[in-house]
Amino acid sequence: MSKEPTIKIAFIDDHDLLRKGICDFLIGYGFEVLFEAENGKSAIDKIALCEYVPDLCIVDVNMPVMNGFETTKKLLEIYPQLKILAFSVNDDEKDVIKMLECGANGYVLKGADPDELKKAVETLFNGGQYFSAGIVEIAQDYYKN
């Protein structure tokens, strides 16, 4: 019987407590967290040192040093195969669209149920896109145009 591949994740968020809690949650669901980082610059430095490139990066939109927009663009420039899941309290249409333009494959609001984050990770890993309920309409309009 073949075992499903473990999804390798990098989690990038500037809030320490949130980052630690989400990483524990992801590990509890059977995902492998390769590293966590407090901003985009730190993430780019850490990914270069990893034995494996993550399958997916969960990226906070608003961070100091290097925000989610810059981080997403830079990561995809270096590792075009990466899947990017934006993770934010921010459901502002302009910022959602900007993350999609930068290459994000999905967008989950931080207030989402933990099972929603799990579903989003699995959906992106399997080649799909995922958007929280408050984001779906913005994403649909974006992809129509």
TrEMBL record:
MF annotations from Gene Ontology: DNA binding
Keyword hit for DNA-binding: yes
Record-annotated Response regulatory domain positions: 8-125
Annotated CDD domains: REC_NarL-like
Biological process per Gene Ontology, one example term: phosphorelay signal transduction system
Record-linked SMART domains: REC
Listed InterPro entries: CheY-like_superfamily, NreC/VraR/RcsB-like_REC, Sig_transdc_resp-reg_receiver, WalR-like
This protein's record includes keyword GTP-binding: no
Record-listed 4-aspartylphosphate modification sites: D60
Keywords tagged on the record: DNA-binding, Phosphoprotein, Transcription, Transcription regulation
Annotated protein name in UniProt: Response regulator protein vraR
Organism of derivation: Chryseobacterium taklimakanense
Gene name, Swiss-Prot/TrEMBL: vraR
